[in-house]
Amino acid sequence: MSRVQTIFKNMSWLLISQIIVSICGFIWTILMARYLGVEEYGIFGFAVSLTGILCILFDLGIGIHSVRHIATDYDSAPKYLGNAIPLKGLFSICGFVIIFIILLFMKADELTIIVTLLFAIEQIIKKFVELMNATFQAFEEGKYQGILNTLMNVILFIFIIIAIYCDLGLYGIAFAYIFANILALIYGYYILNKYIAKPNYEFDKTFCKNVTIAAIPFAATAILSSIYYSIDMVMLTNIVGNYATGIYNATYKLISVLTLFYGIYTAVIFPVMSKFYKNDEKMLLVSYEKSIKYLMLIIIPLAIATMFYSTDIIHLIYGHEYESAASVLSILIWTVCLLFISGAGNSLLNASYKEVSVTKIYFIAAVFNVVLNIILIPYLSYIGAAITTVLSDLLIVIIQSYVIYKLGHRPNKKLYYDIIRIIIGSAILGIALYFLNLNMWVAIPVGIIIYLIIIYLLRTFDEDDKYVIKEILGKN
Q1: Residue-range definition of the domain harbouring residue 29
Q2: CB atoms within 10 A of CB 182
Q3: 439 belongs to a structural domain
């Protein structure tokens, strides 16, 4: 099987899984938002955001480091896993205590403290599940990751429905997340032992020390990334209140559905790029260029359409209670475009052993994000938080592009021409939607047809793209 076919096979497994996950997540997001109301949904958003920022304490970057190393040396998997699992257990205990102390320092109310600690437990379990998935990625066995993700989210969906039906409140929803992750961990560990690699349990102090030190740049990048993607909700709660957080969180959940596709792509392409860096640097750059092109082909027209129909989308999903979220959605949708570009760049830099550069970039962005949030949130509330997120992502793309250029990874000029064609095609789509003024459900198929015709007429697909398609179909 060719490299392109392997990538497509893994993408297919994860994409099918993600479609199922997205449908479940879409439904439970609607049900939870309507069931909890804006105030309690704001508490839920705060708990998830704070634990999301600090969950790196449970892992310290070991998962990402393991993917890169195991992908180039399968025989090292038992030793890595056998040391990483107990090491993560030790980190988890310390991290849980730190979160509890932070909550006391913030003088949070009892409900917020208990719910946040429950989600901290959920994040601890999830980090072990992610280690299983990281190993599946390293071995390029996307089907196991796809099955595991599907199983976990379908179970979570069922548990959330039960919690809502039985009127168990925020506590019931938090326990639904915990139980779903426990069952996923049991299944993932079984698959890992039976089909991938059996952990050789030990606690080699020297090995653990070296792995931890090597993983620190990944950990720093992860926590800095979490800060500028999640600190806004924590700051909204403390500066404006739970209502503003609930409005912002409702929009952010919709955006998260789109970023899941980006997560699929990077999960598949990162181990591939790691191999290319070791064996074929030319293909490393090609994979980076094609990643940006294909991701932009999808997300830019989607962003344009979302801007036009943001109010309809919010009314359909959350009802009129969340109408204020429409303006936030129109702004935040652009962060997805920027995230797709920076995600491809992160994969390139991490695969090239330039994780320290990534850490520096995210440090600058995190500081920028926090300062701008402090300035804008008191005056613009959730709108200020949305603007800050987009500007932070733009800053990352600018700095990252400069770093990649300075390292000698200079994309072919064709990539720039392709992006221009995609932007032109998306702009024409936007103009067409504006003048046609169609109902949202009619605009979806009409918009797709218009966009595909424009992309074809602009000759966006070149011979390399045709070769990739033929490779996928096995016709080369």
Answers
A1: 3-411
A2: 17
A3: no
